[in-house]
């Protein structure tokens, strides 16, 4: 009888030990990064070194009492937080089934039409070097509301491993606190027409282009991301075409009544650098930019900084006409390239000596831009102004039908498709930096009821072990009862 008692006790202790080890074994191989931040929702994406059903704990005023649970186990997770308040700072952390990250903070997008927006932008940075880290840390110190990545985000081929090593690892502090809105560069397209890039990001989508080209509003600014790789022939026609993108862009710009419009993509219509001006992008899209009142165009590709005068067609705009400044901000971390020729007449300022980034504040009818080095040196600055109608007090944004209250369990959501040929996210190849058990499935973009993490199959040992131990104890006590 003593032997049976010992066996039962041993089974329960073993189950407790293995379950506790399983619950705390899932560490993060990729720190949280913010995606699809909107006035009432946000997505927190991250990756684990083992299969687990983690959760995100979040709240306002430093609290993290609300819980959004992943709806599936796996290594790849992107959990959506719903029922948030516009323009509000939230604190959050990831609970990876026993292992918690340090609390981070972010701010939701403001109520649509809010006349104050602050963003940063830079491209050509994905090198995992000190220059990239310095630029990213300098942007974080400016505390922007959102960050626009202008392409070539992971050199040299945009592979799964390079995205981890050259984007998510060196820029983790920035991406955990500032929402990332990216556009693909030609280096992302080296690997399967940028498929790893799309598999790793959770961007806004458009009906025609998926994540390849899309738009979103932040306050009183309408942002549009185009995929210039589709225009110059790097994308196959089954994924992206020039005609479809142009049609979508015209409809999108025509439908927007935002006070300001900013377009960003990779290949510059105006550049005096190593690659020069991408004339097809200019010819195909500049007329639409001009027709629908685009205020600013941001690009990368050439590894320098350059700003054009306001341009219209193929020349500088007349004093009486309205033109568009075109910026090349390809100074985010890759090696800078010297200008081969003299400064053209259409260039206001250019710099091939300093790494740096663009910092923009849009207050009411004034857009103020600065281009800064990591040390704070001013490379360039300019201001755009326009007359806006008197601001009306915006009504609170009603929650979409079915949106849960902050205290209720969130609902599951699936990631938006990139294109008809996008493979499911569980087909993302496992890299040496992202180990996972054979057959591990990625987590869904969603949540279930709030609660703790699953302890896994070992939990099944508890009822049997407990019954066995109780029976052994009863039998052991019977001789004493006599």
What this model shows, in words?
This protein is an alpha+beta fold and 482 residues long. It contains nine helices and 22 strands. The chain has helices at residues 2-23, 130-141, 160-168, 172-175, 195-200, 228-231, 242-255, 279-291, 461-481; strands spanning 28-35, 41-52, 55-60, 66-69, 74-82, 89-95, 104-107, 116-122, 146-149, 180-182, 214-218, 221-225, 260-264, 296-299, 305-308, 311-312, 315-316, 326-329, 347-351, 357-363, 366-372, 378-385. The chain has a seven-stranded mixed sheet with strand order 11-12-13-14-18-15-19, with helices on one face. A six-stranded mixed sheet has the order 10-9-8-20-21-22, with no helix packed on it. A four-stranded antiparallel sheet has the order 4-3-6-7, with no helix packed on it. It is globular. The two termini are 17 Å apart. Mean pLDDT is 83; it is low at 1-25 and 403-482.
For this structure, the quaternary state is single chain
Structural class: alpha+beta
Strand content: 25-35%
Radius of gyration (Å): 26 Å
**Poorly predicted residue ranges:** 1-25, 403-482
Largest sheet properties? 7 strands, mixed
Helix content: 10-25%
| Spatial order of strands in the largest sheet | 11-12-13-14-18-15-19
The number of helical segments is 9
Number of E-state strands:
22
Mean pLDDT: 83
Q: What is the 3D shape?
A: globular
| N-to-C span | 17 Å
What topology emerges from the helices and strands here?
Layout: H1 2-23, E1 28-35, E2 41-52, E3 55-60, E4 66-69, E5 74-82, E6 89-95, E7 104-107, E8 116-122, H2 130-141, E9 146-149, H3 160-168, H4 172-175, E10 180-182, H5 195-200, E11 214-218, E12 221-225, H6 228-231, H7 242-255, E13 260-264, H8 279-291, E14 296-299, E15 305-308, E16 311-312, E17 315-316, E18 326-329, E19 347-351, E20 357-363, E21 366-372, E22 378-385, H9 461-481
Parallel strand pairs: 8-9, 9-10, 12-13, 13-14, 14-18
Antiparallel strand pairs: 1-2, 2-5, 3-4, 3-6, 6-7, 8-20, 11-12, 15-18, 15-19, 16-17, 20-21, 21-22
Helix pairs in contact: 1-9, 7-8
């Amino acid at each position: 009888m003593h032997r049976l008692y010992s066996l039962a006790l041993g089974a329960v202790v073993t189950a407790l030990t293995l379950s506790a080890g399983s619950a705390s074994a899932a560490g993060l191989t990729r720190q949280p990064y913010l995606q699809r931040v909107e006035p009432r929702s946000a997505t927190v994406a991250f990756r684990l070194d083992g299969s687990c059903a983690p959760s995100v704990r979040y709240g306002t005023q430093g609290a993290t009492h609300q819980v959004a649970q992943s709806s599936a186990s796996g290594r790849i997770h992107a959990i959506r937080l719903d029922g948030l308040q516009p323009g509000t700072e939230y604190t959050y952390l990831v609970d990876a089934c026993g292992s918690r990250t340090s609390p981070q903070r972010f701010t939701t997008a403001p109520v649509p039409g809010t006349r104050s927006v602050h963003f940063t932008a830079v491209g050509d940075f994905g090198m995992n070097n000190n220059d990239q880290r310095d630029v990213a840390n300098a942007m974080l110190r400016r505390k922007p509301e959102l960050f626009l990545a202008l392409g070539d985000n992971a050199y040299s081929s945009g592979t799964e491993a390079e995205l981890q090593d050259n984007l998510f690892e060196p820029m983790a502090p920035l991406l955990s606190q500032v929402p990332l809105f990216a556009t693909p560069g030609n280096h992302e397209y080296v690997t399967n027409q940028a498929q790893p890039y799309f598999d790793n990001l959770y961007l806004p989508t458009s009906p025609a282009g998926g994540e390849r080209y899309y738009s979103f509003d932040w306050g009183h600014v309408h942002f549009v991301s185009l995929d210039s790789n589709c225009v110059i022939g790097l994308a196959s026609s089954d994924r992206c075409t020039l005609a479809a993108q142009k049609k979508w862009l015209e409809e999108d710009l025509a439908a927007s009544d935002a006070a300001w419009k900013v377009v960003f993509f990779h290949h510059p219509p105006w550049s005096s650098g190593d690659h020069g001006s991408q004339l097809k992008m200019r010819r195909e899209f500049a007329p639409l930019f001009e027709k629908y009142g685009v205020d600013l165009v941001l690009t990368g590709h050439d590894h320098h900084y350059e700003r054009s005068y306001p341009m219209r067609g193929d020349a500088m705009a007349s004093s009486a006409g309205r033109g568009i400044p075109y910026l090349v901000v390809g100074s985010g971390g890759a090696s800078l390239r010297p200008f081969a020729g003299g400064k053209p007449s259409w260039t206001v300022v250019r710099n091939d000596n300093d790494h740096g980034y663009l910092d923009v504040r849009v207050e009411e009818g004034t857009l103020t831009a600065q281009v800064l080095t990591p040390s704070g040196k001013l490379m360039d600055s300019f201001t755009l102004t326009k007359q806006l109608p008197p601001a009306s007090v915006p009504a609170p944004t009603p929650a979409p039908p079915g949106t849960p209250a902050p205290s209720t369990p969130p609902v599951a959501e699936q990631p938006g498709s990139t294109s008809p040929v996008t493979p499911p996210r569980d087909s993302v190849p496992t890299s040496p930096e992202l180990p996972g058990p054979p057959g591990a499935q990625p987590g869904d973009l969603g949540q279930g009821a709030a609660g703790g993490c699953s302890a896994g199959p070992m939990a099944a040992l508890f009822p049997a072990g407990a019954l066995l131990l109780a029976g052994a104890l009863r039998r052991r006590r019977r001789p004493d009862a006599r």
